[in-house]
Request: fold
Amino acid sequence: MKALWKTESPEPDPATGSRSLGIVETREYTFAGPLKLESGESLGPVTLAYETYGTLNAGKSNAILVLHALSGDAHAAGFHPGEEIPGWWDAMIGPGKPFDTDRYFVICSNVIGGCKGSTGPSSVNPRTGRPYGADFPFITIADMVQAQRHLIDFFGIDRLLCVAGGSMGGMQALQWVASYPERVRSAIPIATALKHSPQQIAFNEVIRQSIMADPAWRDGDYYATGRPEKGLAVARMIGHITFMSEKSMEEKFSRRLKNGRLGFDFGADFEVEGYLRYRGANFVKRFDANSYLFITKAMDYFDLSGGRLIRGKEIDTRFLVLSFQSDWLYPSHQSQEIVRQLKRKRVDATYCELKSTWGHDAFLVELEGQTTLIQHFLERTYSGKRNGNGNGNGNHM
Amino acid sequence: MKALWKTESPEPDPATGSRSLGIVETREYTFAGPLKLESGESLGPVTLAYETYGTLNAGKSNAILVLHALSGDAHAAGFHPGEEIPGWWDAMIGPGKPFDTDRYFVICSNVIGGCKGSTGPSSVNPRTGRPYGADFPFITIADMVQAQRHLIDFFGIDRLLCVAGGSMGGMQALQWVASYPERVRSAIPIATALKHSPQQIAFNEVIRQSIMADPAWRDGDYYATGRPEKGLAVARMIGHITFMSEKSMEEKFSRRLKNGRLGFDFGADFEVEGYLRYRGANFVKRFDANSYLFITKAMDYFDLSGGRLIRGKEIDTRFLVLSFQSDWLYPSHQSQEIVRQLKRKRVDATYCELKSTWGHDAFLVELEGQTTLIQHFLERTYSGKRNGNGNGNGNHM
Reply:
């Protein structure tokens, strides 16, 4: 594989020596399928959008699969032409960065059900010639991972060095181990859970209800009539509250007024209101409401508790499990439950709860704590060493 | 005043000896006003719905004003004819109960801006002959309290023995002390705050956006065309998530399925989804969307921080401040901030954080812990004794 980053890449970071990947591009891989889905339905043909960074070595032993969260996409790092904002995990992926593209071949795959180049409800249904809409089959996290397995097969990679991701990306990482343990040398699930609690389901349900309450949703059949923008904007506003913490909101907004005084009307008086409105309005430009419905449902259905994470007796996959102190959407006790399940099966697992006031957003923005841990974990995995303390027991439990 | 409860009241509770108030009725008090509002606008005539329980003594020294939360009403205790569910604080108010109607005269007043018999956006605007709708003037917690002061004047009560309430009821209790300190002998603010944090504002803002996103809202002018039921239902669902705790949801719902299996559709798969849908659908039958908008805005505007709670030098009002451990909507640190403000002004204040897994709902359902504290606090206030430890210092800080 040819690396996608520009040879004329920008100047290195003076502090770390790391460099940007420069210009990257999203590609598509299509296979006929049909995928046999958990619901019993099938889906095909299937397209997956993906990006790759770095070079696959001759032994195909340096491939890392990076997995994105609910509204993410395949563009994890580097820049698309003409854009000033890099991919969503750019600080983590690149030459000299934790996912070091001088050593590793990094793949980021979009999920089925999404709207960022992969087959989803806004794709054309080959049977009708019109967008699937609500006729799109229900998909699960296991279905997403099954589709990604086709992409990894396409690369001819027998065994991934690592699967890594935060939030729903962490669910996919866990599902990779559950579905294909022999094909994963290590996994880094971050700020995630074995299953959604009723509170997490509740937030997703209100998000869905908000979309479906918009008359423009029309039971999902809105691609020719106009999208349910208001419902989706409110849905995303709910999401943003859960991504932050009480403290990070206090630090970022306090009770500061947008226009210096109370308006005594239903406009945005406080900066936090303006922020949420802006985030909601922006989101509808870049995301499809039906995708939000299908993907949140896939997250709610996800359940690898009760021994479903590690089914076999012996498993060789190593784990680095990370959570963040102020994350109340995916609280640390959920990550600790992952580690407990692993320990019960004598799996080599390191756990760390990182300090942060950023809430769930921490996995995207609280980089310093993650950087060293991930870097060393990958190095030791790649060089065949076990976890630092020899017996595979995690710390910080 | 004549007591409103039936003389032939039901059998006493065998454990506590307390009795139900039996049948009660909501009354209305109308005054011309106009009320001069904080916004600069004015409102008149003004009607307040209220209920009273017990008998006002000759010296008018035994009156307690009970204040309700966001969606509450004047019906705090006893039964309305033909109804099987008593008022919202029935366990706390009645003969032999903490707010003991054998000793005290309890008044519960509805708020202006509401839709439960008091002047609000669904009332007829005397200038147009049509419902106010969004033309209703913006009201604040101080405006609500100013209206209640007219009701207390009507009863000829110079000084209330106590003002008490939870959540927005607690805000009104605090505002009573801020606005009319000489007319309040004691206050019991429960599960409340001196001001909303940006997270609390954010939840209210998303609630408002959900209502206003419903095309049926029509800028508040919907009384002749049909109410924004879908938007209001989603708004209330958001509220219910914040009223519970992660733990109380886990205990109540876990991941139990509604129909024994996953539906692979957008129906309610999990019991928690069914609960939220039920709560949302029920709420639209009993509450007005415009009232929800105006009242949440009043809560967000409320701010008695920075010395605004106690303006004078000497204040004789005693406080019992209560919060609940699992309440993340009005977390204990907000109640502790109230107590800090009181201590700074050398006000006699007792604070207690009560154990509970119920989240914010605790103030309505976690009765055992509140009962004794409130009972003793009222007894000592009524008999003129100070707080138990002599120096007025709270405990449990």
Observations:
- The two ends of chain A are 40 Å apart (CA to CA).
- Confidence is low (pLDDT under 50) at residues 1-9, 388-397 of chain A.
- The first strand of chain A starts at residue 27 and ends at 31.
- Chain A touches chain B through 58 residues (CB under 8 Å).
